[in-house]
Structures are given as structure tokens and as C-alpha cells.
Predict the 3D structure of the following.
Amino acid sequence: MTDKIQFPKDFVWGAATSSYQIEGAWNADGKGESIWDHFCHTPGKVKDGETGDLACDHYHLWPEDIKMMKELGLKAYRFSIAWPRILPEGRGAPNAAGLDFYSRLVDGLLAAGITPFVTLYHWDLPQALQDAGGWPARATAETFVEYADVVSRRLGDRVKNWITHNEPAVVAWLGYHTGEHAPGLQDLNAAIRASHHLLLSHGWAVPVLRRNSPGAEVGITLNVGWTMAASNSAADLDLARQVDGMWARWFTDPLYRRGYPADMTADWTASGTLPNGLDFIQPGDMQAITVPTDFLGVNYYTRAVVRSETADRVGAAQNDPQAVFPAPKDPKHWSEMGWETYPEGLLGVLGRLYFDYQPLKLYVTENGASYSAGADADGHIRDTHRLNYLRGHFAACHRAMQAGVPLAGYFAWSLMDNFEWAFGYSQRFGIVWVDFTSQKRIPKDSALWYRQVITDNGFEA
Ligand code: IFM
């Protein structure tokens, strides 16, 4: 006997992308250089020297992409704005062509009956701002507010869902501590400063977005995995505390009125990373960061089972195969990123975030899996592992809602295969296949199944 899993009628079903990962047109129509342009054009930084120069050429193909979204029945589309397309030097005179591009995109989505969810910062900082110090510099937070103002003045009449930042933990830790992401620095002290300025810029931007976009809902998106110790040993438990502290609590605690977690500050002070403590916090900062928001966005992919003897770099534990519990890599349970399929973790994360921090509501703003399955002889793309991944995670969302979590929507990552950062094009997360030579898009079986779920607003478990 099967059970029908039925979602509430206003549940928002969507898919997500980000500017650098899909747009291409990296230097078209007055766009300035971003840190990801710069990073990708630096030999040795990205797998096989790949870049987002062309990516999915969404900058030119957006009308077809909207048509495809409509055919898939999507109710909402989450995308990000490329800051250097709007302000080529990071600040100053806006680039009209950049603003026009996003304005047309928003109009096209609304005409297709698709609600735009706009992320202001999904990692493509103008290089000029990095040259002036990047996120470790407080001035970058001030400049972000100018950028938020310019964008929301132009789009705020039509865009009513705003996300300030995508995954500030990844920006800070991978960009400024491990160096795996642009701008590629390896300086934990700078990374901690960056994290503060990212959060501060969020706090300062929220009232600006509200002013320019009456009636809008505003939030932030965090990546929160499900962190578990591999054993009850003191060392494993302490490592789990550190990983969770760095990746989750360092962001959730200050956003929800608790300040920065004292255990992390104590660790970093003891290790000499913070010789002057949190001296970069100025009066009023913590108050600004706790600005009330309308929702919390959660990006969830996998769990991290941490064991002390294999984790030499806590900051990299989330992406470090050495830091997770070894297990056979059966594709049914492990994606090609080496990430385990663990939907119970999504249930846990949603429950923890809601019951611990009490956001007014939540969205899953990203969730998905990398599998490279392409077309069979009959042209079908049978991405069964991705379809099952989605099914398991939809069920976890439903269970969380039954437990009382006010989950308002779900965005699949990603609408289409795209540029997966340091992995280049080697990892395909799309529910739609992209042929990067012809730019042809082919919906995979997961997308066709998702369309049915959206139509039925549920599925047979
Ligand atoms: O592709 C990324 C996205 O840009 C941010 N969240 C995780 C995804 C998969 O790694």
C-alpha cells in the first residue's frame, strides 16, 4: 500500500541557479570583472582550466529558459544578480544594460506566472572591491548596501522575495581560509573578518530592501549540513562541535540574537588566530545583524560524519572526503561529488533551525545531487539516482512540516547543469541536461517527475 504525500496548496515549488554559474557573457555590455572571472582566468585554480565565460549562455538564452521553466510547471525561480553587471567597479554609476537585463528577466518570469526569488550575492564580488580589500574590509559591507539599493530601486516594484546572501560560510571559509574558491586566500583571521562583514552587510541591507520594495519578504540563505561525530570519543565529539560551530552556529547564532558562539571565539583566541579577539565588531553591529527577517533559506545537501584522526583541516571538513566516515560509494547512496544521500539530515536540520532559532518561516533554497547520467539511445535521460534523491528529500520536507516546521517552499538545485565552481563542468546538478557545445537543454527524468509532483502538489510515497 502506498501513502499519498500531499503538500499545502500554497507550497512554493521552484528551482535555483546563480549568475556566474549560468549566465556567461562575462565581459558583455559593460559588465566588470568579478573575483570568479579573475580566479578562473588564473591557471591552476579550477579543474581543467574551465571558466564561466560562456557557461549556459543564459544571458542570451533567457527567453528560452523561461519557456522551459514554464513547461516544467515551476512556480518560482531563484536566481542571483551579478554585482559587476550592475556596478562594474563595485560602486558608482550603475550600468544601465546590466539593470535592463535583469528587469527583462523579471518581466519575462512574471508574464510566465513564475515568481522571482532574487539573491543579491551568490559569490561574484566585483574584482575592484577585492583589490580594495574584499570582504575582510568593512568598506565592502557599506558598498553592498549601495548595490542593494540600486538593484531594489529598479526591481523592487516587481520582485517581492529577496535573499541578501547565499551561503556566507562558503564565501568566508572557502574564499578566504582554504582558498578553494575565489579570491583564493588562505588566512583564517581574514576569513573571520569576512564572515562578520558579510553578516553586517545583510543586516544593513534588509531595511533598504524593505524601503525600496514595499510588501517584500526578505531573508538570507545559509548552508547547513547535518554534522555527526563518528564515535563517542571526546576527540570526535569535539571535532563535531568545531565543524558545526564554524559552519552553522557562527552564522545562525548572531542572526538570531545570540552573538558569536563563545566556544569558537575561545578556540580561535587560544590558537592565536584572533590575537585581538573580535576587535572588528563596532558598536551597533550585533544589533544590525539581528535585524528581523521574514524567512530563513536553507541549502542542504548531505551530512558530515566527522572523525578526528582523518580531519586535519576542520574548515574543509564539509568538502573533504577524508573527513567523512568511509563507506562504499554506491551511487544509490553517494553522488558524484562524494556526498552521501541522507534525507534524514534535512529533517533534522529543518527541525533544529526552527525549534532552536524560531525563524518565521523557512524555504529549502537549494537541494540536489550531482550525477552525470546522459541520454540513452532513445534520447531519454534516466537520472534515477537524482529522482530518488529528490523523492527522499521531498518526503523529509513533508515530515518536517508535519512536525510543525513552517516550511514554505523548496527549490531544486539546479534548474540546469552549470559551472560547479572549482569542479568546472565535471559535476552536473541540473534537473535539465545542458550540452555545453550546442547549448541544447533536455529535461531529465527527474525534471519530468518533478513536473508531475508540482501538478499533483504531492506524490505517492
Ligand atoms: O553549486 C553550488 C551552489 O552555487 C551553492 N550551493 C551548493 C551548490 C552545489 O555545490
